[in-house]
Specification:
The complex is a heterotetramer, with 2 copies of chain A (213 residues) and 2 copies of chain C (228 residues). By secondary structure, chain A is an alpha/beta fold. Helices cover 19% and strands 27% of the residues of chain A. Chain A has 5 helices and 13 strands. Chain A has helices at 7-19, 34-38, 89-97, 133-139, 200-205, and strands spanning 26-30, 47-51, 55-59, 79-86, 103-107, 110-112, 117-118, 142-146, 158-159, 174-176, 180-185, 188-194, 211-212. In chain A, the strands form 2 sheets. In chain A, strands 4-3-2-1-5-8-10-11-12-13 form a 10-stranded mixed sheet, with helices on both faces. Chain A has a 3-stranded mixed sheet with strand order 7-6-9, with no helix packed on it. In chain A, strand 10 and strand 11 form a beta hairpin. By secondary structure, chain C is of the alpha/beta class. Chain C has a single domain, classed as Glutaconate Coenzyme A-transferase (3-Layer(aba) Sandwich). The chains are: A alpha/beta (213), C alpha/beta (228). Chains A, B: Pfam families: CoA_trans. Chains A, B: Keywords: Transferase. Chains A, B: This is 3-oxoacid CoA-transferase subunit B.
Amino acid sequence: MTGTMNKTDMQHLIAERVAQELKGPCAVNLGIGIPTLVAEYMKEDNIYLHTENGLLGVTDVEEEDIDPNLVNAGKLPVGEAVGASFFNSSDSFAMIRGGHVDVAILGALQVDETGLIANWAVPGKNIMGVGGAMDLLVGAKKVFVTMSHTSKDGSPKLLKECTYPITSTRQVDMIFTELAVFEVVDSQLKLVDLMPGATIEEVREKTEAAFTE
Amino acid sequence: MTGTMNKTDMQHLIAERVAQELKGPCAVNLGIGIPTLVAEYMKEDNIYLHTENGLLGVTDVEEEDIDPNLVNAGKLPVGEAVGASFFNSSDSFAMIRGGHVDVAILGALQVDETGLIANWAVPGKNIMGVGGAMDLLVGAKKVFVTMSHTSKDGSPKLLKECTYPITSTRQVDMIFTELAVFEVVDSQLKLVDLMPGATIEEVREKTEAAFTE
Amino acid sequence: MSKILNNLNEALSAVKTGDTVLVGGFGLVGAPLTLIDGLTEKDVKDLTIVSNNLGESGKGLGILLNQNKIKKGIGSYFTSNRDVGDKYQKGEIELELLPQGTLAESMRAGGAGLGGYYTTTGVGTDLAKGKEEREIDGVKYIFEKAIRADVALIRAYKADTLGNLVYYKTARNFNPLMAMAAKTVIVEVDEIVEAGELDPEAIVTPFIYVDGIIKAQQVLTKKGVVNV
Amino acid sequence: MSKILNNLNEALSAVKTGDTVLVGGFGLVGAPLTLIDGLTEKDVKDLTIVSNNLGESGKGLGILLNQNKIKKGIGSYFTSNRDVGDKYQKGEIELELLPQGTLAESMRAGGAGLGGYYTTTGVGTDLAKGKEEREIDGVKYIFEKAIRADVALIRAYKADTLGNLVYYKTARNFNPLMAMAAKTVIVEVDEIVEAGELDPEAIVTPFIYVDGIIKAQQVLTKKGVVNV
């Protein structure tokens, strides 16, 4: 059933599921892609969004209020919440690396069965960009990963071992796909939820990494 | 003749002489004691005073305008200049250590004949305080030292070698006493000025350190 | 999620025996006088206090010192309190003296998730003894370790209800750095305003660093410390 | 002692062949568009450019890249300009890729007179290759060296005549750090005000860091970059 879902619907489904895990008060950093969508589904009003280019208190913005000098890390226009503050890049990453951001929600290319992720480089191509991915992985109190369960060609992205360069030696805390939700417990993946329409058989089939159920 | 001068007059004489060396635009950090008096004699209006507890743009203050939360590093009340700014202690020492302060004017207990100074600790006593002395010595573009030429007991303070612990391995640039002004050139003291009433004989007699004339 | 605390007991509940506690201020200026006073009433000991000075004799942190609650002091200028020297002589307190810039930078480093850094300050002096020296691009530096703590007790001017802070003149000093470097950060302020009342461009400490806010009951005035 | 400069030539006079130049901005936001444009007109080469990105293809620093004036790029996200990869493949440019937090912190360290620092970011990854690893209190860190430069070209919102700076929203980003880390700091601004008009508590970059000020001739608007 999930096989017939279009990409946008799938992304929103994942984003909505992630939002359920966010309990305020907390400060959350949203990566580019699916993570950005999570903001649309947050139910509590005491969740504050941090963007590493220098703003705590990110909100969405109406078209007519767009300010070209007010953007998020994906360079998309955003608004500022009541109680927001601006700061420079080193102060922003001090917050991240120093463990002051509660949750980082990131995309990933691959996740291994111990919870390590690869999300910044592909072998055989020039390594051209890393941005804040490595900082967020070492620093956020909790790291949630969102991604499609498989690649475009259907191959698993939850692997025994990452074949792409890892982003950090720190394991993530939760992984959200359109099929399943995993927690990382004692360096092992634990299936904690099946997404609507997904079956345990489908998850087993499309997951190379070992996981407990 | 200088032997009959009282302490306050002597301190003011030195302070006035130091002020002649300050050419704006520049940022100057004044230590406690004689250095603080230098502000009274500065002739140019584009000399800005920095105090390491977090203010660039220190001025003097009238009694009725004293604010207990606006003080210098000596914890004395000060005022703020037009264009002043406040910052935290790490930002303040970033300015100092990073070489952004043009001149630091410090007191000293001893100076050796290469221009090294001791001004923070006395052997045989507990080492209890250092404050910003070491930071200023490594960081300021130029360091000027002010002190009485001899100790209370008449013994020289310009020595072959400091007997007190040195404050830094960085040599100071100029030394000002009530008798003479020295520059440090190629790790040697060079007498560049005699103070009013002082004779070269008196300076030679009261100086243990070698110096060129 | 109001961070506004009702009383000193609540404000100081995070401080436990054996903790490392950062205490703001440069002398009395910017010191959390109310929280320090509360700490002298609290049954804790073996504290490591990180603060520029340990108060004056019989005042502020000086009271805590005389109560033998301080196991170790880390600061840059203990000279302001003659009792510190006496205790040190008797072996009743450990002291770690750091240059003022190093003290400040080490707390910033701790708060920023760094392990330590290389500084020129102190190279070749008695305060560098036992510290690693390294040459980088022809310049000598010594290694200084980051400072992290259990609790920070700090002073600000205004907090909003979320915990964003602004400071007042030279009462800023170490406070914003201490807010970064401790697990639990309690701030005493002159005024609490609604979220949105502070200029987002001028907030010095974003609320992410602040756990609890209490109104100051003791303030520094021209005539000295006054109860309000 | 006015720091206000009359023209781009004067503003860019400090930039010499072989220099290391810090260029502010996160993409176009907070980038000194006027100064970058001026640099493309200037006869210099072999520059080391430290900037989060090297512009976009054929835009901003991307022009400088295509003029073969950049010997080396240090940044966190070169991906924004596909030409960088092409040049790199051909061996026409050196690249040093740093995590964004490390890029920012290294400039702050340089400006603050530090030699380098230990960070957790990047430990155990390909970007840690060749970097010293050290365990401090049971946590692994890698050593990162401070960055210092000859010139910084930055963007602020307002300068006063002394050179104090405030920024605007997320256009702040790397600019205040670059102001700390270069020998000569040139800033382009939207507005120049009299000294005393900026709130002393809200000044982000004190004038001590700033050497020259020029009014922006190109600004980022909702409709893109516009000449003013």
